[in-house]
Amino acid sequence: MDVVTPGDRKRYRIAVVGAGAIAGGRHMPAVRAHADRVEVVSVVDVDGGRAAAFAAEWGVGRSGTDLAAALAADRPDLVIVCTPPASHRDAVLECLAAGAWVWCEKPPALSLAEYDEMAASERAGGPYVGYVFQHRFGSAARALRRQIADGALGRPLVGVCHTLWYRDDAYYTAPWRGTWASEGGGPTMGHGIHQMDLMLSLLGDWREVRAMMGTLARDVETEDVSVAAVGFESGALVSVVNSVLSPRQESYLRFDFSDATVELSHLYGYDNADWTWTPREGVGEERARSWRPASDVPSSHAAQLGAFLDAMDSGVRPPASGDDGRRSMELITGLYRSAVTGRPVLRSELGPGSPFYERLDGGRRRESDTPARDETEVAR
């Protein structure tokens, strides 16, 4: 991306769609961190009272329940979509058609088919749609990404990517949670996607996945835990676990390179103190010290929003969009397909024509955790 100097930066009008906890808790503080570059001009929510209360709390001039009316009246440059997953596709398509860039909460869509439909509605030079994968944007992840690209740590060999969280039964009283049709999946889709996206942004393209999943303790249609082994094009092998059944919560990533081990332990966000670089025996102390990042920028929505605005200034595709944003959806699709069918899945097998391209459970509502014999049977 071209470097944009402060003098070249533009000021953008923003609309927020969805006035729930994530909008107020994460996105509005991120917007305020860039107050010199953006202004929120409207908020839209299916609940008009909630939209009005949000507007009053955050000093937003207009609120309402009609996205089309807000797009026409306020002509935002950027729309931040903070609604449940089942509504992402329609909101994104409407905003792109109106000429607005879109920053959409995770998971991007309910399927690869929906993701590709949204991508097909973009135009060269913008508007583009990008997705909230804020863990890529902390200074430690940026430093590690450079080190991997430069070969400073040696070859990636072994990895761990574990999202071990806890969500009780009350969490699933929200009617859209825990169903394939409205949430798209369980913790693999809604929770572990952040850690998996960070892993993919570091290690690059994956090649093969072998997975299992179960619904062990929550009364939900989707899984409440999944485990997988993922093989990367580099040859690295990674263990992936996604759980909402873990009382001691942790988001843990570990990457073993030929010259060092790099670890990250956090929960919902990190700074440099949450990372460790451990050199193998024989690596010089001066070289090992050089791996520590020079600055300390926590992972956050504000960090990603800054990168998104830079892309808007330059008229280029933002990070975590297009093919770059699709990799996480591909891995999740492959993981579910492997778990349902009981077979290893190659990334190359996930195009149109597979029932899992259209729906992440392959088109069936799981009544048990018994793998189907083949995809034809799964699709019935």
UniProtKB/TrEMBL annotation:
Which stretches are transmembrane? none
Record-linked Pfam families: GFO_IDH_MocA, GFO_IDH_MocA_C3
List, as start-end ranges, the regions of compositional bias called Basic and acidic residues.
358-380
> What domain of life is recorded for the organism?
Bacteria
Q: Where is the GFO/IDH/MocA-like oxidoreductase domain?
A: 142-255
Residue ranges annotated for the Gfo/Idh/MocA-like oxidoreductase N-terminal domain, each copy included: 13-124
GO MF term (any one): nucleotide binding
Segments for region (Disordered): 346-380
Protein name according to UniProt: Putative dehydrogenase
* Taxonomy of the source species: Bacteria, Bacillati, Actinomycetota, Actinomycetes, Streptosporangiales
